[in-house]
Amino acid sequence: MSSKEFLRGRGAQNNTSNRFLRHVHEMREDFLEFCRLEGEEAESNKTKYIPIFPKTIVNKVDSPDVGMGYSMNPYQGCEHGCIYCYARNTHEYWGYSAGLDFERRILIKEAAPKLLETKIKHKKWKAQTIVLSGNTDCYQPAEQRFGITRKCLEVFLKYRHPVGIITKNALVLRDLDILKELNKHQLVGVNISVTSLSEKTRRKLEPRTASIQKRLKTIQALSENNIPVNAMLAPMIPGINSHELLSLAKAVADHGALSFGLTVVRLNGAIGQLFSDWIKKTMPDRAEKVLHQIQDCHGGTLNDSRFGTRTKGEGKIAEQIHEMAHLAKKRYFKDKTFPRLNMELHERYKDGQMGLF
């Protein structure tokens, strides 16, 4: 496979058609040949940051499979480029592709902190954990430039409101000062995603994420500061990383994680096409085997949309994965528990200051 055939530094290798748009955009061979002869790029591979102006920021999560009641996303799209990411399909709602557009067109919600403050100050709002990154990573590279996540954490601290974080980026440690203050009141829990112990696999699956060692050290640093950490060993992809489950569980436990969760990969919407194209270019020797094993977990298809089974999978391979997870919890997490966050303080801080009584 030549460098011309594979777009390095990105997960997706093309832009799939947007199911909501009437017209389809494609790169014709004669145009690509013209660009080659002229020494020009057919399209830029640089990331573009695009401001958007939503009216609300906190989303109610109705899915029983996700394990959260409310989420918020300072950014839409994600430069991490994880090829399996379920959030890719949501980029189509904004008029973009789930493929390269998802990684190169990052939508920025600079009003997120103010919108969050308005939401949790509302007299009818009762404290429930709001999870940063229910869809796209709040500590993706854009956060270094815009700092929206940090500003949101300052809002959570000001109003003593519980917050969860999901990330695979070591940048979360930049905000250790705020996390420590939140944790004094049991207001924060962090979920660190660790998909493989192999850097070779990580670079293919998640090209612009923090290295595995950085993620493990992030778990360790948070744990040493008594901030509760749950490891997300997800998704488990048969033939790629599922064989690492026990080793992954031991590694995150050794670095201080109090619990772990997992899902079996499902390739819903445009992700099936993107993943199939990607694996045939990156792992041609085992592409068909991996795709067939994923299908074996979902009744012969790459995706299962049924609540209760879509993230767990079915069949022998899925059963083996869950049996290993059960063993890992008994072996490495026997006496560990992830604490419940504090819902009691917020009501007294709705005006931004402590009440007298």
Automatic annotation (TrEMBL):
The lineage of its organism: Bacteria, Pseudomonadati, Bacteroidota, Flavobacteriia, Flavobacteriales. InterPro entries: Elp3/MiaA/NifB-like_rSAM (IPR006638), MJ0683-like (IPR040086), rSAM (IPR007197), rSAM_sf (IPR058240). This is PA0069 family radical SAM protein. NCBIfam families: rSAM_PA0069 (NF033668). Keywords: Iron, Iron-sulfur, Metal-binding. Coiled coil: none annotated. The keyword Metal-binding applies. The keyword Iron-sulfur applies. Residues 64-301 form the Radical SAM core domain. It comes from the Bacteria. Gene3D superfamilies: 3.80.30.30. SUPFAM superfamilies: Radical SAM enzymes. PROSITE patterns: RADICAL_SAM. Pfam families: Radical_SAM.
